[in-house]
Amino acid sequence: GGATQGKDGNLYPPTFVPSQANTQPRVNAGFIVLVRNEELEDMKSSMRQVEYRFNRKYGYPWIFLNDQPFTDEFKDGVRKVTRSEVRFGQVPHEHWSYPSWISEDKAAETRERMKNVVYGSSESYRHMCRWNSGFFFRHNLTLDLDYYWRVEPGIKLYCDVDYDPFAFMQLNNKTYGFTITAREFRETVPTLWQTTKAFMDEHPEHVAERNIMQFLTATEGGDDWNTCHFWSNFEIGDLNFFRSKAYLDFFDYLDKQGGFFYERWGDAPVHTIAASLLQDKCKVHHFDDIGYKHSSWDHCPANGAYHDSGRCDCNPSQSFDRHSWSCLNLWWASSDEGYPSYAVP
Ligand code: GDP
Ligand code: MN
User: How much is the pTM?
Assistant: First the structure.
């Protein structure tokens, strides 16, 4: 065991000592996947990545959820990719439908009005975002879990994950872990920030003293939101944070305002704002050592010593972290974790 000291003198991974996580017992944790039957091949591809890079050595269960019933073809297909326990569940109708206070006409007008915005005209995408904001942590099949890793179809893991990230989270008292942080399209969230501020005024008891507001507002020259958020297609998190009164009050407040349907609020900004404001800033962790790709953006670890260890198949100089839409630099500047030694400005 022990951390690896890189050529740069930095203990790798940067802030904590992941290898200690391997001396811990297994955690109550699993992969939570919302997926459609027709995404079977991309799902198998994701699972092969996760199993090869990590889970074949750890054996955490896979929990598949869907608003439709899973087909036998889907179930048989994904079962073949893992030796772990596999669960299949359907999302209850009341978690994937319009709440009583939402006007379906106004929702339909919104979809018409937002035709030129990414997923702006999609009804199912809105149910998906609302479900990922408010319900994944209270499905029957996830109630026994304390930690989750969200996996989507078609993702890649670039590097071996040689330690247990769930145990790492537990050991270090973390509740939310991400790999990529980016800006959001403002058209999808025009009133999310004012709604958040109204919530904070009404519920000061839920706002953490040492929050990380700076990450959300720096660069705006005021207290406006810069739209920086943790990309939620990859998350390793503590389900009990989402089950907390603070989070549930926040979700209910947002849900009452209707922005999941009258705008197109994503679960990523919702998770991010909650993780950043409702708890101490030490709770959030950047998994700098997990190389990850979803659609066209990726995170390739840029620590030279880590890269030289041969664990990764990616080019750090092409990582999204260098893109102007990335918020990683701002994360380093505002988080407890600070800059890794290879990136100190
Ligand atoms: P993007 O990553 O924002 O482009 O959105 P995706 O299309 O990847 O959807 C996010 C996640 O939700 C993925 O895991 C999808 O498989 C899943 N998903 C999206 N829409 C639906 C849906 O209508 N039904 C089900 N069962 N899963 C969905
Ligand atoms: Mn996706």
Answer: 0.94
